[in-house]
Each structure stands twice: as structure tokens, then as C-alpha cells.
Design brief:
Blueprint lengths: L1 H14 L4 H19 L12 H5 L1 H23 L1 H7 L4 H21 L2 H10 L4 H26 L5 H17 L3 H8 L4 H9 L2 H9 L5 H27 L1
Helix pairs in contact: 1-6, 2-4, 2-6, 4-6, 4-8, 4-9, 6-8, 6-13, 8-9, 8-12, 8-13, 12-13
């Protein structure tokens, strides 16, 4: 685990040595608040909750997280530094996990920096803070799902733009699988059991369940399996590239 921690520290430090970290955080904070107040009508609703704020998080992650993850391995492969990294005394899976955890911790920090809006809602009313805390957990887990997909895709190519486009396309499928209009279209010609199965594959379904204030084991298992499968695939891809 010391090797994982070393990679994590190296990667996390690298974010703040370039404008990438600051640009990402500013864009996320601005967009999250703009959507919450401009489209969600956070104040106009007259309710002390953050539902309009969290509703837009998956849609923001759909583009912002692949934009962050596209460089994780694609840039390493393009510059040739991936060979140097993999010659260090660490296993490929340790490098994969370390880089993923660093990016995930960075995204979690960006999400945590929205705390002033939580304080504001408590000042104006008496919200269900347990539900808000659960929504934060759901938001971070959803970001982790997007990140795992993007990281895996990034390992397959040296081109960051290609990594971004493919990651967004995969995440669109995983997101829209739980979108009500899509489910309504499927329910017109598929049995309910299959429709429920399609919905269970979606980020949106599990995020919405957690954001209601209920952290169900099934939702945690979903994100855990998704992240684990993507990181395992990422490790296999690196192994194949290393063997070439």
C-alpha cells in the first residue's frame, strides 16, 4: 500500500503544480451554482433543501470528469513516461489505483468546496442534513464511477481528445439508461423486469436513490463493482501495452 500512497501523493501534487486543478475547480463551482440557482430555482422553491443543487451534478460530471481523466494515461503514454513509471518497484495495479485515488480525491475536494451552499441553506431554514450528507456521498460516488470509466479509456490511447470523446459516449450510455424518457421508451415494448435491469445499470438511478437520503447497500455495491471492474480492465490494458 505504500507504493499506492506514493503514486497518490505524486499525482495529487502534480494537479496543483499546473493550472488544471484551479481551472477545474472554478468551472465546477461556477457551473454547479449557476445550474442550481438559474435552472433549479434553489431560492424560488421556498424549500430548505439542496435537491436542485445535486440534480445537475451527474450532468456536470458527464463532461468535466472525462476532461480530467483523459490525460491520466494518454499523456503518460504520449510522453513515454508510462514506461518509466512501470519500471519502478511497483505493480501495474498499484499505479492504476494510486492515479485513480488521486484524481478521485481531487474531485471530492472540488465537491466539498461547495459547502457554503449547505451552510446557507441551514441559515435560511431547517433542512434534513442527513439527506444532504447522503447526497454529497452519492455525488462523490457518481464522480468516481465516471472517473473509473474515463481512466480505463485513457489507458487505451495516446490521444487525449479520443479518450475524452469515447469516455463521454460510454458515460452517456450509463447515464441515460436511467433517464425517465428513455425508460418510458423501453417500457413500451420490453417487460418490466428488463426495464428495471436497464435502469439498474445507470449512474442516474443509483445517484438519485442515494440523494434522497437513503444509502442502500445495493447502490454502494453498484459503484464498487463498476469502479473495481474498470480499474481491473485498466490494469489489463497497461499489461498488454507493456508487453508490446
Amino acid at each position: 500500500m505504500s507504493a499506492v500512497a506514493a503514486v497518490l501523493k505524486r499525482e495529487l501534487r502534480s494537479y496543483f503544480l499546473t493550472p488544471v486543478a484551479y481551472v477545474f475547480i472554478v468551472i465546477f463551482l461556477f457551473a454547479a451554482n449557476w445550474f442550481a440557482f438559474g435552472f433549479g430555482g434553489l431560492y424560488e422553491r421556498g424549500q430548505a433543501d439542496l435537491h436542485p443543487f445535486f440534480t445537475f451534478h451527474p450532468w456536470l460530471f458527464l463532461f468535466l470528469v472525462p476532461a480530467l481523466s483523459m490525460r491520466l494515461w494518454a499523456e503518460e503514454r504520449k510522453s513515454g513516461s508510462v514506461e518509466l513509471l512501470l519500471t519502478l518497484p511497483l505493480e501495474p495495479w498499484q499505479a492504476v489505483v494510486g492515479k485513480f485515488l488521486a484524481a478521485w480525491a481531487f474531485i471530492a475536494l472540488a465537491v466539498a468546496l461547495t459547502f457554503p451552499i449547505w451552510i446557507t441553506v441551514n441559515y435560511l431554514g431547517a433542512p434534513d442534513n442527513g439527506a444532504i450528507f447522503a447526497a454529497y456521498i452519492g455525488s462523490i460516488l457518481t464522480a468516481g464511477g465516471f472517473l473509473a470509466v474515463g481512466t480505463c479509456v485513457s489507458a487505451t490511447t495516446k490521444n487525449q481528445v479520443i479518450a475524452f470523446v469515447i469516455a463521454v459516449l460510454i458515460c452517456v450510455i450509463l447515464l441515460f439508461a436511467g433517464f425517465p424518457p428513455v425508460l418510458d421508451a423501453f417500457s413500451a415494448w420490453l417487460p418490466p423486469a428488463l426495464v428495471d435491469g436497464i435502469a439498474s445499470l445507470s449512474f442516474l438511478t443509483h445517484f438519485q436513490a442515494i440523494s434522497k437520503g437513503v444509502i442502500d447497500l445495493r447502490d454502494l455495491v453498484y459503484f464498487g463493482l463498476l469502479i473495481g471492474a474498470c480499474l481491473y480492465a485498466n490494469t489489463l490494458v497497461l499489461g498488454l501495452k507493456q508487453a508490446d
